[in-house]
Design brief:
Length: 384
């Protein structure tokens, strides 16, 4: 039986003010899921995104995947509780008449637009906004504070929540009617056959994520400085966007300069999935030391390419690394332990995490995650 799903997600062209690009692009996890949906003809998927500017967009992303970009003036966004987005989405969904609405993420309008759509709905948590606001002691009226309040409203009204980790499930379960454990998918590029590894004389480490306080790159630069003082040969590559004129980004770039001169660290901006695969295959390890992670997509992507992992034992990272070779976890404040472990590993010849990629394939390949989504959809619609 065919299922018609409205898939509410953020068009990153609007978030990044990239209005000249003709093709929409979404977050890594939604795009990976849509890749899997393309292979399921029993699904008719309508991707719906709101934008502050009218943009040229294709009507179809695949034979069974349609795209709808909805113009919503700036006044209808976060400060009004996304009222403009909610109204625009509800109007469009009355035309589409989906069997089920699936809202992706509580960071913007998608979850709220789903629960006020007038159709059966579920939502997926990507980042736990209320928990992040608590952890970072956000002031009243800030983005995270407001997103957390709106998240709580959405969780109360939806039929159920797809939780990407045990950590997210623990946070969400008391606040909603029903939960399902459904991890994020990785893009298929991360499961492509790896080339024959080239032996490097110098260790190359990767850190992937937005350059921001919650990703703690400034602290990682201090670790890199300590390793450099020990005379170890390594290069730390930081991959991620820097918000222009942001104090943290400015501090990061300033702190990076002396290590850059020594050839021990570089910031290389953002990368596409294909570029990340190439970068990971030329590296040996990944360091990820965020104090909170709802899932930890970067961690799973690195392990999918057999990178040795050094990470904080937080959130979804614990789920991802369970039973995985080559993953070392630390208390999120154990910087000295991290530094010692990195030094030992570099001195031992920096071996990669052989076998980790196969575990990631069995857990997070799009085909695996799509099957789980179909089970949830059928359960909600009473088709099981």
């Amino acid at each position: 039986m065919k299922i018609k799903v409205a898939f509410l997600t953020t068009d990153n062209r609007d978030m990044q003010r990239d209005y000249g690009t003709p093709v929409p692009h979404f977050g890594t996890a939604p795009e990976a899921l849509l890749e899997g949906f393309k292979q399921r003809p029993e699904l008719e998927v309508h991707v719906v995104s709101c934008a502050r500017v009218r943009m040229t967009s294709p009507q179809k992303l695949a034979p069974n995947i349609f795209f709808h970009s909805l113009f919503v003036p700036k006044i209808g966004w976060m400060r009004t509780g996304f009222q403009g987005c909610i109204r625009a989405v509800r109007k469009k969904l009355r035309e589409i008449r989906p069997d089920l609405v699936h809202g992706h993420g509580t960071e913007h309008d998608c979850a709220l637009s789903a629960v006020f759509s007038g159709f059966p709905n579920v939502i997926t948590i990507h980042g736990n906004m209320a928990e992040l606001a608590r952890l970072f002691q956000e002031r009243v009226g800030s983005y995270l504070w407001l997103a957390g309040r709106l998240e709580t409203l959405a969780l109360k009204r939806t039929l159920g929540v797809l939780c990407n980790s045990a950590y997210t499930e623990q946070l969400v379960r008391p606040r909603t009617r029903r939960v399902w454990r459904v991890a994020h998918a990785l893009r298929q590029e991360f499961f492509a056959p790896a080339p024959v590894p080239t032996r490097h004389n110098r260790c190359r480490l990767v850190n992937l994520g937005l350059i921001a306080p919650r990703k703690r790159q400034l602290e990682l630069l201090k670790v890199a400085h300590e390793l450099a003082q020990q005379g170890l040969a390594f290069e730390f590559l930081f991959v991620g966007n820097i918000t222009p004129n942001h104090p943290y980004g400015n501090a990061f770039q300033e702190s990076l300069k002396p290590l850059e001169k020594q050839g021990c660290a570089r910031w290389i901006g953002t990368k596409t999935s294909l570029e990340l695969v190439e970068l990971f295959d030329a590296a040996s390890g990944m360091v990820h030391f965020s104090p909170a992670e709802s899932f930890g997509l970067a961690v799973a992507e690195g392990l999918a390419r057999d990178l040795k992992l050094f990470a904080a034992r937080v959130g979804g990272v614990v789920d991802i690394t369970e039973g995985v070779p080559g993953a070392e976890l630390f208390h999120e404040e154990d910087w000295s332990g991290l530094t010692r472990a990195l030094a030992r590993w570099i001195q031992s010849g920096f071996p990669r995490a052989h076998g980790a990629g196969q575990v990631m394939r069995t857990r997070y390949h799009p085909e695996v995650i799509v099957r789980r989504h179909l089970e949830v959809y059928q359960e909600v619609l009473g088709q099981k």
